[in-house]
Design goal:
This protein is an alpha/beta fold. The chain has five helices and seven strands. The protein has a single domain, classed as Leucine Aminopeptidase, subunit E, domain 1. The chain has a seven-stranded mixed beta sheet with strand order 1-2-7-6-3-5-4, with helices on both faces. The structure holds ligand AR6. Ligand AR6 binds next to helix 1.
């Protein structure tokens, strides 16, 4: 499923984000930049130790922020580590919006043309998938509506429920 926004595209795919060949994939990170379970665990095991080593050198990223490392052995040349909110900590909507927006800004600063996001905060962090879909898709669409070098924004959704939530939401964006 794809929609065009200006000169760019937003695409939804089902599956494992570590298989994505966009210039960057986004990690659903924590503020300590320690690669734990879920997306981070998949990135660590497929990408190799260099990604955690680069994260250790950076040290920390605030909730709502994003930092970049290399992609190690992944197909993507870069990993953008975006820190989403934990459900219940407060101000989740703004924090998830900022994590999405800051990832796009980091991609642009590094002259990257394509990026794949997971459904940030909807696994270990327990944020509802429908709200995540609405916030992340709206943020991406608004961003792509302005001047940008980013041509493709992909969302890799791991299971049918997440895919369906994003599919339902993207239809309302058209
Ligand atoms: N590809 C795409 N999506 C995935 C994959 C994958 N390989 N694996 C899981 N998902 P999570 P969070 C989905 O838990 O909630 C970690 O310990 C998953 O089904 O990865 O932001 C970190 O180190 C869910 O819908 O991220 C942090 O400490 C979504 O990706 C913390 O968890 C996000 O799930 C971050 O928690």
């Amino acid at each position: 499923m794809k929609i065009r926004v200006n000169h760019s595209k937003i695409e939804l795919v089902k599956g494992d984000i570590t298989e994505s060949n966009t210039d960057a994939i986004v990690n659903a990170a924590n503020a300590q930049l320690i690669l734990g379970a879920g997306v981070a665990g998949a990135i660590r095991s497929k990408g190799g130790p260099s990604i955690q080593e680069e994260c250790n050198a950076i040290g920390h990223c605030p909730v709502g922020g994003a930092v970049i490392t290399g992609g190690g052995n992944l197909k993507a040349r870069h990993v953008i580590h975006a820190v989403g909110p934990r459900q219940g900590e407060g101000d989740e909507v703004t924090k998830l919006k900022n994590a999405t927006l800051n990832s796009l800004k980091v991609a642009k600063e590094n002259k990257l043309k394509s990026i794949t996001f997971p459904a940030i905060s909807t696994g270990v962090y327990g944020f509802p998938i429908d709200a995540c879909a609405r916030i992340m898709l709206t943020t991406a669409k608004t961003y792509l509506s302005g001047p940008t070098i980013i041509k493709r924004v992909v969302f890799a959704l791991f299971d049918e429920t997440s895919f369906k939530a994003f599919e339902d939401q993207i239809k309302t964006l058209k």
